[in-house]
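Quick question about two entries, pasted in order.
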Amino acid sequence: QLQLVESGGGLVQPGGSLRLSCAASGFTLDYYAIGWFRQAPGKEREGVSCISSSDGSTYYADSVKGRFTISRDNAKNTVYLQMNSLKPEDTAVYYCAADPGVRCGIRSGFWTRMYEYDYWGQGTQVTVSS
């Protein structure tokens, strides 16, 4: 069974850091672009970041550039999202997703489009609050 499992969420104060993990089982992430999305209460799900498998190129939403870093460890079949300088507006459920295209957005031209991704995790809650 193909599965993605996110972990690492929690409660953190503004300015703090968290590292999210996205672990795959039942398939190897080597040939997938992996995206991170988030959904805050009452808002649409939005793309946060993506990392290609072909060349490791990375993409970020403007709202997280300079604060978040996506990386992958194919040996561990895991993708990470390092989140620094967290703000209350980063509060959301964070999801990872796998795109069988080896490059982010290769099918539609937009890595932020949810239909680029075939497999989704269940999400992990991130709450930024003092």
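Here is the second entry:
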Amino acid sequence: QVQLVESGGGLVQAGGSLKLSCAASGLTFSSYVMGWFRQVPEKEREFVAAITRSGGSTHYADSVKGRFTISRDNAKNTVYLQMNSLKPEDTAVYYCAAVSDSSNGRWITIGQTIPKNYDYWGQGTQVTVSS
């Protein structure tokens, strides 16, 4: 049974930082591209960041580029999202997700930024940024 468990969310003031973690079990972690997504009520889930199987390449939404950093530790089956310079508009439920990548691509593809293409999802963690 595959499980993705996020942690590290909370309440922070604008300009502050948070680091999210997502611990995976029940899958061969290094065979999956990992992504972070976020969602606010009544809006579509949106792409935040993704990282290739080896961690050698990453891709970010324009709205978080330069502020957020995705990383992974395949020995610990964990993916992280370091969020700096947080803004009130970053407030959302953040989800980690996994998509199988049998081709072991060097880069994140457009398809790997689309939520419906992901195989597994965590339960989400709330991030609230106060102004």
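Reply: The longest strand covers residues 92-100. The chain has a mean pLDDT of 97. Hope that helps.
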